[in-house]
């Protein structure tokens, strides 16, 4: 009875309950498709790809030299030795030979890469933005499409990185000489190897990136919105480094196929991956399949961090512009 009396006492109509704020659990929400148009994904991807590859190009040059076999000047697998050899023979400009080809290939290829990824992610995820399998499969579709665009320019880029000014005077000169001496097929000699390398690379990369991003957000959800760049960069670096180490052997095979005949490097009778691997193992042992793994990891970790943070920043810019347009603030 006492309890009922007490309850009745505090049910006075003059007292009104004060609404309590709900528990605050800030988090960085991830929409399945981010509300962007197809062309906006392409532009964001193109910007990200150009920034990434231009910033990390010298490291890529060192890696290419380390992976090339034959009578090329650089035979040591040491990063420091390879770098000193390039600087001694060609100076600082030697680290940037072929950057024009990279610029011509990276923009269009990454536009295809990210736009295909986003479209496939929307299709395969079934509305679940945390579906790792969908991210991996979407990444494979993206790399098959983008490699078809990038492989020819990547071949030109690597030949320019290895050759001196007497071998090729520039991008157009390299294209003309390759077409004349080896035919159009030379531009796609490594396409199969590139896809076989980049398919697992991209699957590991995207799945690791999305999982790492989600994990970092869960660690500190209250500051996730303020630290978007740090989250994307850290997740991208982890994904890039992991995928790079796993796929180094196929990257060595790809470099061999793209650079055959340049600077005394071996020529192969066929583009068979097995034949190239046998040649590498015979000349350099199994360790030859891991040539350049250190610069490859040093390239892909910061490159992925730069790429993802740039890409997400560009997407955010487009989202803001789209929101402003819907609100009628932009004509």
UniProtKB/TrEMBL annotation:
Solcar repeats: from-to residues: 36-123, 130-215, 227-317
Keyword Magnesium: no
InterPro entries found in the cross-reference section: MCP, MCP_dom_sf, MCP_transmembrane
Stretch list, region Disordered: 1-24
Signal peptide: none
SUPFAM superfamilies per record: Mitochondrial carrier
BP GO terms, sorted: iron import into the mitochondrion
Entry superkingdom: Eukaryota
GO cellular component, one term: mitochondrial membrane
Keyword Ribonucleoprotein: no
Membrane topology: Multi-pass membrane protein
UniProt keyword terms in alphabetical order: Membrane, Mitochondrion, Repeat, Transmembrane, Transmembrane helix, Transport
MF terms (GO), sorted A to Z: ferrous iron transmembrane transporter activity
Annotated localization: Mitochondrion membrane
Biased composition (Polar residues): 1-14
A Pfam family assignment: Mito_carr
Family: Belongs to the mitochondrial carrier (TC 2.A.29) family.
Name the record gives this protein: Mitoferrin-like
Gene: LOC111284708
